[in-house]
Amino acid sequence: MPFSYYSRLTRAQQAIYRKSDEITEIRLPRPAALHPSVRALTTALATEDRAQVQRATERLIRDLTDALGVPPVQVEVLAARPHAKWGELHGLYTVERGQAPTIQLWMRTAKQRRVVAFRTYLRTLLHEVGHHLDYALLRLRDSYHTQGFYQRESSLFHQLLAEPRAPSPSVEAWFRRTPDERLARLAATPGQVAGLLGERPERGLARRPAPDAWAPVEIVCHLRDIEESFAARVAAILAMDEPALPETGPAERWARERQYLRQDAALALVHFRRRRGESLEALIGLSPSDWQRGGEHPARGRLSIDMLVALMAWHDDNHLEQLTRAVEGRP
């Protein structure tokens, strides 16, 4: 679904917008060849020396445009934001008739005058380079902030960063961890979800990265609803001896029947945070014998509270990884 300003564009501009939105990735031929330039930029930013950051930025942009076979773009690194009216932006791309396209970046925050974090700087650089690529590589007649634009930016970011991500603990690993470690996992999840959603527009959060992959809002709604089922199981186990524990049903059916795509992600997060807080309140202070109380699940057999909390910690890990991919436009 297009962003809200789409309706204010002319038909010709809307056609450009749609074309931009359809392109979700820019693949580098050999990303590893650019990693030395990325490391050099990391080192330069750590020195807080503008001249070194300028040289490292020029090198990375040159390597990037060469790799994609597009004309170069000039870059100017400023120590700080040049005009107060530009707010907290950290970069600007300009292209004027008869002049070479230029990217301006400033390496310090406007209010606190601190050097911008490396990831923020690289994101900003790739954002401005993305405008250049819209013209020089994709041959668009204008450059709009579309969902596709942000996905292309993210695709370049992850290819250049190429950080090996530590795999999340397996469910077996969570079974071996202490109750306190599992509760800490559950307590951290709402804040991590909020951080991933950030201030993204609701329409963007309702867009699936692929037809068979959930949109961010669907993931948050699922976390909210599964928390209700989790709390009901724990309450039943504490209130009765070996109760029957109901199945939750297929997650896709919930998403369809409860119309997750039409819900508000921010409101779903509010309810998830509240329900998770209630769950933690019920779990904290349980005795060791309470942790071993259980009930009979039709598919999994006997499940103790100890096992349920381990499963929920593992479940959180899985959906946080899924949400990370979804907000970046990756299935």
Describe the 3D structure:
With 331 residues, this protein is mainly alpha-helical. The longest helix has 24 residues, at 216-239. It has two domains: 4-161, no CATH class; 171-327, dinb family like domain (Four Helix Bundle (Hemerythrin (Met), subunit A), Up-down Bundle). The model has no long low-confidence stretch (mean pLDDT 88). Helix 7 packs antiparallel against helix 11. Helices cover 56% and strands 7% of the residues. The protein has a three-stranded mixed β-sheet with strand order 1-3-2.
Write out key terms for the chains shown.
single chain; 331 residues; mainly alpha; Four Helix Bundle (Hemerythrin (Met), subunit A); 3-stranded mixed sheet; two-stranded antiparallel sheet; 13 helices; 5 strands; 56% helix; 7% strand; elongated
Give the mean pLDDT: 88
Strand fraction equals 5-15%
What portion of residues is helical?
A: 55-70%
Give the CA-CA distance, first to last residue. 17 Å
Main pleated sheet? 3 strands, mixed
Rg of Cα set: 24 Å
Number of helices: 13
Strand order of the largest sheet: 1-3-2
Low-pLDDT segments, ≥5 res: none
Shape type: elongated
Tally of separate domains: 2
Number of strands: 5
Order of helices and strands: HHHEEEHHHHHHHHHEEH
Instruction: Assign the structural class, choosing from mainly alpha, mainly beta, alpha/beta, alpha+beta, or little secondary structure.
Output: mainly alpha
